[in-house]
Amino acid sequence: MASRNVLTASDVTIEYPAHSVSPSHVAVKGFTLTIEPGEIVGLVGSSGSGKSTLAQVASGQAALKTGSEVQPRIIGGSLQVLGYEMRTIRRNKLTEFTLGVGYVKQDAGTTLTPNMTVAEIVAEPIFLRDRKHDRRDAGLKAATLVDSLLLPVGTMLKQPHELSSGQRQRVAVARSLALDPVLLIADEPTAGVDVSVRGQVIDAIAGFQRARGGAALLVSHDLESLRRAVDRIAVIHEGVVVGLGDIDEVLDDPRHPYVAELARETSDSEW
Ligand SMILES: Nc1ncnc2c1ncn2[C@@H]1O[C@H](COP(=O)(O)OP(=O)(O)OP(=O)(O)O)[C@@H](O)[C@H]1O
Questions:
Q1: Per residue of the chain (271 residues), what is the pLDDT tens digit?
Q2: Which of 61, 88, 104, 271 is the most buried (most CB within 10 A)?
């Protein structure tokens, strides 16, 4: 019977194949996680722990890589996203797949198209899906998203170079939500965003997804900004899940030294 989960990772192992002088490298080892419809899950871990690799593979972006780019590949276990097995997904299915999965890549704010306005950038996915889509409706959608990510309405007519890095990052997030994704995978969505509004931006993303029954996997090394918004966290360390569940339960009963370290950092920052 087909799973009702939007994401089911069972013992997934992901490798970067050998390239030029670099040997192959296993970045994610035996990763297991499920995300149900409407669930907001945080993926937390230190630098190099495998978060971006997972995000790229689960969002279909790794499979979209071409030419000389090194594509991480699943070499063990199973990763099902919206019913597609990512280990074997065919290239001709990726367009259909990515209509249901929003993706914010790491540093997404730095790669916005320079000569487009924010309104055009945010609404573009709507016209890529259906070039005859009603312009007024798409404009309204873009304005609603820009507003919900706490950007001033005047931002709509600006171009990326007129914005701060944190504002650009929020534009990238707004764009990723334009197609009402069933699952949003966001890799450090608040990178560069002012500390004072990071929590609110995460709350806005979670609120937008929850309101429509959408799910999210929010990747971050900043546990504090995720705390209010997520239903559960998965803690990853050197490619392995070392903590999974309700955020307080995971931190109150650390089963791994890295989780204990995270719990200590979190309690220190509360003073
Ligand atoms: N193109 C690549 N080729 C080989 N190894 C890679 C490649 N990209 C990443 N890695 C390795 O895979 C592992 C996981 O990297 P990844 O970027 O997924 O970690 P991360 O948790 O997202 O880190 P960060 O928080 O710094 O972004 C690291 O050991 C990294 O060096």
A1: 456 899 999 999 999 999 888 899 999 999 999 999 999 999 999 889 999 999 999 999 999 887 778 899 999 999 999 999 999 999 899 999 999 999 999 889 999 999 999 999 999 999 999 999 999 999 999 999 999 998 998 999 999 999 999 999 999 999 999 999 999 999 999 988 888 888 888 998 999 999 999 999 999 888 888 888 999 999 999 999 999 999 999 999 888 999 999 888 877 765 4
A2: 104
Total domains in the fold of the chain: 1
Instruction: Give 8 Cα–ligand 1 centroid separation in angstroms.
Output: 22
CB 178 within 8 A of CB 118: no
Range list of H helices, 67-216 = 94-100, 118-129, 135-148, 165-176, 195-211
Residue identifier of the C-alpha nearest atom 18 of ligand 1? 50
* ipTM above 0.95 for this complex: yes
The CATH number for 85's domain is: 3.40.50.300
Is residue 188 a part of any domain in this protein? yes
**What is the pTM assigned to this prediction?**
0.94
Q: How far is the CA of 11 from the centre of ligand 1 (A)?
A: 19
Q: Do the domain assignments include residue 118?
A: yes
Question: 1 lies in a domain?
Answer: no
